[in-house]
Design goal:
binds magnesium ion; binds adenosine-5'-diphosphate; 6-stranded mixed beta sheet; about 35% helix; about 230 residues; Rossmann fold; 4-stranded antiparallel beta sheet
Length: about 230
């Protein structure tokens, strides 16, 4: 597994979204929102439901194009890349964890974790060996040959975190990763996610509305009505 160097906290941001605007019809989801993350840093994006957290994450990760504003990642401007270039960058540099796993239901948990490697051109054997390593690390080996529909929510999320980490991304975007879990499973997923990110030097953009989850972050950004401000922990 490759590692990335962790810069000091005053280093240049690895990812910097500046003054983003995004409207859906008359709804102004983002109204001058900004977000920056340095290498290896975990930033919690907090705010009430509907405040624009997911939209900010989608724009920062190059999933969605903002109406205005800039998103710079490692010297590149994401908003001017083609769709193909952006999806290639997402596949190689970023990992994603969503609230409900969003695993491929037809594939086993093992195959789900191996999938990002297979899409990157790795052969089945080494990809599945790597997936097995993650299943063991996250203590979900017994889910290996089951489909996501046949394992618990907690196991599903651990598999989803493993899938996000398998390509050793430099930034992990997690949108309410514990939102569907009880507190015990939520804590476990957060511990595994933050530990694995620390081990590999990955940064995390962690969207949550739970203070207990945000406590895993180095820093908080608060979103309210599509605007961001720095949280109390900064
Ligand atoms: N695809 C969409 N179409 C229309 N409105 C949307 C869409 N996505 C988000 N919105 C609206 O934008 C606002 C911010 O949404 P969102 O970013 O999902 O907030 P949060 O993640 O904080 O709950 C909300 O008013 C929401 O209804
Ligand atoms: Mg959301």
């Amino acid at each position: 597994m490759s590692t990335h160097t962790t810069d000091s906290l005053d280093a240049e941001p690895l990812l910097q979204a500046t003054e983003l605007f995004k409207a859906f019809g008359l709804t102004e989801a983002l109204d001058r929102a900004s977000l920056s993350v340095t290498a290896g840093e975990t930033v919690a994006v907090m705010g009430p439901s509907g405040s624009g957290k997911s939209t900010l994450l989608h724009c920062a990760a190059g999933i969605m194009k903002p109406d205005a504003g800039s998103v710079r990642y490692d010297g590149r401007e994401l908003t001017t890349l083609s769709d193909g270039e952006r999806s290639e960058l997402r596949r190689t540099e970023f990992g994603f964890v969503f609230q409900f796993g969003q695993l491929v239901p037809e594939l086993t948990c093992l195959e789900n974790i191996a999938l990002p490697l297979r899409l990157g051109g790795m052969r089945r054997k080494p990809a599945e060996a790597e997936a097995e390593h993650w299943l063991a690390t996250f203590d979900v080996t017994d889910a290996a040959h089951k489909r996501p529909g046949d394992v618990s929510g907690g196991q599903t999320q651990r598999v989803a975190v493993a899938r996000a980490l398998v390509t050793t991304p430099r930034v992990i975007f997690a949108d309410e990763p514990t939102g569907a879990l009880d507190s015990l499973n939520g804590e476990l997923v957060m511990r595994l996610l933050t530990q694995a990110a620390r081990d590999s030097g990955a940064a995390i953009v962690l969207v949550t509305h739970e203070a207990r989850v945000a406590a895993y972050a180095d820093r908080e950004v608060i979103v309210r009505d599509g605007r961001t401000k720095t949280g109390v922990l900064a």
